[in-house]
Each structure stands twice: as structure tokens, then as C-alpha cells.
Amino acid sequence: MITEKMSVALNTQINKELYSAYLYMAMSAHAQQKGLPGVANWFFVQTQEELSHAQRIYAYLIRQNAAVTFEAIEKPVIDVETPLAMFEKGLEHEKYVTASIHALVDVALEEKDRATEVFLQWFVNEQVEEEENACGIIDQLKLAGEAGSGLFMIDRELATRTFAPPAPEDK
Ligand SMILES: [Fe+2]
Ligand SMILES: [Fe+2]
Is 0.70 topped by the overall pTM? Predict the structure, then answer.
């Protein structure tokens, strides 16, 4: 069992993960329209990851016999044009999600909820990876240029990303 405060906080995080999926799918569509299929693929794979994050928290709430409540998902606004600006927006969003995960760990500690604290460790590590990935692509875009053959090569590389479903939580 988990406390009401903990379950409300985890439900809020499901909404944030679903919003992330929505945001990245909108980015993917934007990249398609710009003629960047590799960038579009990268963001589409990221969408799948975000959905799996939401499902992971959902499954945990079910296992803990906690309430699951869904709220409206905010409309994503794509106010960026270039690939560099898209990945910078993605990185900003991931920093926000990292802070949100860390706040969840704080709630688990306050509630002396050791099970949820352990459950959240996977997300703490995942956020390190998410920020690292975005930073790496931003560096490449800055180095290779945002247009011409440099962008063409980065786009081809981003086209190779595939979705690997994360291992389910150990039971
Ligand atoms: Fe996520
Ligand atoms: Fe990831």
C-alpha cells in the first residue's frame, strides 16, 4: 500500500509522461513536414519511450492497489523551427521532468515509502540518460552545422534509432 499523497503525486507524473509523449509526437510531425525523416524518427521513438514511462507508473499503482485518475493532457505547442531549437526545447522539457521525478523521490522520503523510493530509482537513472541523449545531439548539431551535408548526415544517423521496450519492473 502507498499513501494517498504518494499516489496523487504518481498520478500527476503519469500525466506528465503522457504530455511528454504528446509533445514529442508533435515534434516528430513537425520534423516530417520539414523534410527531416531521421529527426522525425528520433522523436517518434522518444514518444514510444514516454508512453512506456506512463505505463510503468500505471502498472506500479495497480500493483499497490492505488487509485488511478486521469486528467486532461495539455496541448503541445511547437514554437521552434530548426532541429537545434527542437532538441533544445526537448532538453528543457527533460530538465523539467527530472525536477519532477526528484520531487517524487522527496515525497517518497517524506512518506517513508521505501518501495516507491526504490521504484523511482529507475526513473532517476532514466532522466540522466534522457538529458545526456539530448545534449549529445545538440552538440552534434552545433558542430556539424544546421544545414546542408552536416544536417543531412545527422538526420541519417537519427533515422537508425529504434525503440527498445525497457525491461518490465522486476517482480
Ligand atoms: Fe519520461
Ligand atoms: Fe530514455
Answer: yes
